[in-house]
Specification:
The complex is a heterodimer of chains A (about 200) and B (about 260). Helix content of chain A is about 25%, strand content about 30%. The mean pLDDT of chain A is about 95. By secondary structure, chain A is of the alpha/beta class. Chain A contains six helices and 13 strands. Chain B has a single domain, classed as Aldolase class I (TIM Barrel, Alpha-Beta Barrel). Chain B has an eight-stranded parallel barrel, surrounded by six helices. In chain B, α4 packs parallel to α6 and α8 packs parallel to α9. Classes of the chains: A alpha/beta (about 200), B alpha/beta (about 260). Chains A and B meet through α1, β7 and β9 of A and α3 and α6 of B.
């Protein structure tokens, strides 16, 4: 069962709808009991980093989540702020991230090269430069494009964790993978055939 | 490269999909859910759905309808109409909508946007400005209106836009009352002036009558959202209802030709 982690933050329904249209069984997880049958996990998220971390930490699911991701190695896909939560820390808050993929979440506006140069947030459809080895992109048509809506990006400490990048003023990691842990900054649940293919690939990993 | 967004704008009136002209005479063009299904198939960049009854009638957003279209929508969607509180905004986001649009309530009280941005993140907060040319013998410039053009505020659009941006809006939708449904092109001067004062993304709505009008907007303002009403629901000079949308290739071509 694909479980979408419902900790009170993020667009859960969009994932439920998307998986339904793909014919893949997916349900929300509200409690740690709900997580026990998970074979794949989706960690959505919107809004501020600290708010999302606090909600997850207080959801009653955090310990179980750590156990099934880190010990049982159930594949997980963090989306948008859900991806940023995989990091060690963020410019946007003081709380520690999950630290599942080493990195720091930076504000585009804190970067001296790009500050004030481009409209913020980064909003709309942008191209991805895909690392050819990434299994999340197997069978993709050339030059995939995805919908973005964010002002912070994941700066990976290990470049080998970067599966795809996008460019908005600067080139930034927008899809990351470290073993069975994955994150996407863009919105596969709202990116037509490209997003559908990525979610399908994740489920088939 | 980030691309301009071609955004069908769907107006909801009495549960149906309508198209207005200069904010008046709504013409019924079909069922909103059916329209969304067609825009899914055509792989639209994003949708803007505005309930034009809610604020005017002083009622809450129609959550049942929002839930229905959000479940159907496979592209990002922004909903506007009747939102007056952060709780309502959060409830709508939870139904599966990416962004909420606020107009009258934000112009009355910009702090509302701060509160909503704090709850759902500013990337999901859109402020809509209905703008119209001042009329009267010695009048010049533009003014803001709300409640489907019925209430006028003697405020300069660029000042209000900046205030709402500073308060927490992550996007400004600039909606020209005079150009609405006229299909004679966007008000490019107004759009350019607004683009210059804003640091958030902007979507321009009102006036698109052809794909070259969209090209002209992109040439004038760069990578912006192009809101489109009539052009994507009507065909021909008799305004026969036929939902249409340019292909990805066509959209790319328009963007390239704009030489941004």
């Amino acid at each position: 069962m694909i479980r979408i982690i419902d900790y009170g933050v993020g667009n859960i329904q969009a994932f439920v709808t998307m998986f339904k249209s793909l014919g893949l069984p997916a349900e929300r997880a509200h409690t740690s009991t709900d997580l026990t049958d998970a074979t794949k996990l989706i960690l959505p998220g919107v809004g501020a980093f600290d708010h999302a971390m606090e909600k997850l930490n207080k959801s009653g699911m955090r310990d179980t989540l750590d156990a099934i991701v880190l010990e049982q190695q159930v594949p997980v896909l963090g989306v948008c702020v859900g991806m940023q939560m995989l990091a060690s820390s963020s410019d946007e808050g003081v709380l520690p991230g999950l630290n599942w993929i080493p990195g720091h979440v930076r504000a585009f506006d804190n970067n001296t090269e790009t500050a004030g140069q481009l409209p913020m947030p980064h909003m709309g459809w942008n191209d991805l430069q895909v690392n050819p080895g990434s299994k999340l992109f197997s069978g993709f048509e050339p030059q995939p494009r995805f919908y973005f809506l964010h002002s912070y990006y994941f700066d990976c400490y290990n470049k080998t964790d970067v599966a795809a990048t996008a460019t908005y003023g600067l080139e930034f990691p927008c899809v990351i993978s470290k073993g069975h842990i994955h994150g996407v900054q863009c919105h596969p649940e709202k990116s037509h055939q490209f997003g559908a293919q990525l979610l399908k690939n994740f489920v088939e990993l | 490269m980030l691309r301009p967004r071609f955004i069908p704008c769907l107006l909801i009136h009495k549960g149906g999909l309508v198209k207005t002209q200069m904010f008046k005479s709504p013409k019924y063009v079909g069922d909103p859910i059916n329209a969304i299904k067609i825009f899914n198939e055509k792989k639209a960049d994003e949708l803007l759905v505005l309930d034009i009854d809610a604020t005017a009638n002083g009622v809450e957003p129609n959550y049942n309808l929002i839930a229905k279209f959000a479940a159907e929508c496979r592209m990002p969607v922004c909903y506007g109409g009747g939102i007056t509180s952060a709780e309502q905004a959060l409830r709508i986001i939870d139904l599966g909508v990416e962004k909420v649009a606020i107009s009258a309530a934000a112009i009355e009280n910009p702090n509302l946007l701060t509160e909503i941005a704090h709850t759902i993140g500013r990337q999901s907060v859109v402020a809509v400005l209905d703008v119209r040319k001042k009329i009267g013998l010695f009048s010049k410039g533009y003014e803001i209106c709300t409640h489907n053009g019925k209430i006028t505020h003697n405020l300069a659009p660029s000042t209000v836009a900046k205030t709402l941006q500073d308060a927490g809006a992550g996007e400004i939708v600039l909606n020209s009352v005079d150009c609405d449904g006229e299909m004679k092109g966007y008000d490019l001067m107004l759009a350019q002036q607004m683009r210059e004062v804003l640091s958030v993304p902007m979507t321009v709505l009102g006036g698109a009558g052809s794909l070259s009008d969209i090209g002209a907007l992109i040439r004038a303002c760069g990578v912006v959202g192009a809101g489109v009403g009539s052009l994507f629901v009507f065909k021909g000079k008799y305004r026969a209802v036929l939902i249409n949308y340019p292909t990805m290739l066509k959209r790319d071509e328009i963007f390239q030709n704009a030489n941004v």
